[in-house]
Hints:
rod-shaped; three-stranded antiparallel beta sheet; alpha+beta; about 270 residues; disordered C terminus
Amino acid sequence: MNQSNLPKLSPALIVLILIGAVALLLVFTAFGTVDAGMRGVHTRFGKVTGVIKEPGLYFITPFIEKVEIMDVQVQLEEARSAASSSDLQTVQSTVALNYMIDPMETAKLYRDVGRQYNTRIITPALQESMKAATADYTAEELITKRAEVRDAIKALLVVKLDEHGILVDAFNIVDFDFSDNFNASIEAKVKAEQEALTAKNKLEQVKFEADQAIEEARGKAEAIRIEAEALLKNPQVMELRALERWDGSLPKVTGGAATLISVDTP
């Protein structure tokens, strides 16, 4: 195509086009939105003004003001830390922290820490709190008092993070891991306790059976005593017992004096 056939733009038209382009740019950059679960930190010439933009549409002065978006939803941070118990056992702990930024403190957090609050605030607080709480318990207590240890770590985290505008939603100990020697000693202790319990149960069973035998013997002795007393008081009972055992035949051979049992005949 011949360039001579292209329409020529006057300087005034070019200026108008440039002004229109700048105006459109200003319009598009003057408006923005903050999504749900977020907050906007307002800055002017890069300095935090303290104004927090709620979810929705906002207006700013282009090139002078900006809005930095901060997530205020519940977030998860997992960490693993090595610490020592009060009895100097090495403990590897894995924990999970659910936290959120206080919506009213987003401007302060952004001004003091910036977006790196996770690595600059949360991770160090987790490590320090885990080491401090673990040192107050023996290795065995870390297992038997797990809920108490969890609450102790959480309490330390609440204090450390609250001053930065970060709220602790939930905290859980995922796992405790100890040295092989300690694990072996725990297994040996549990085995010994189980064997002791088994022996105790067996002893209780033997004692119970012995008590049963004694009671049974006492019952038999008491029955014999009662029967003997009855025989002494009622001699006729002996005759009755003899008749009960008599088969009706007389002895074929008798010698000496014989005791005859009188039987009344009708």
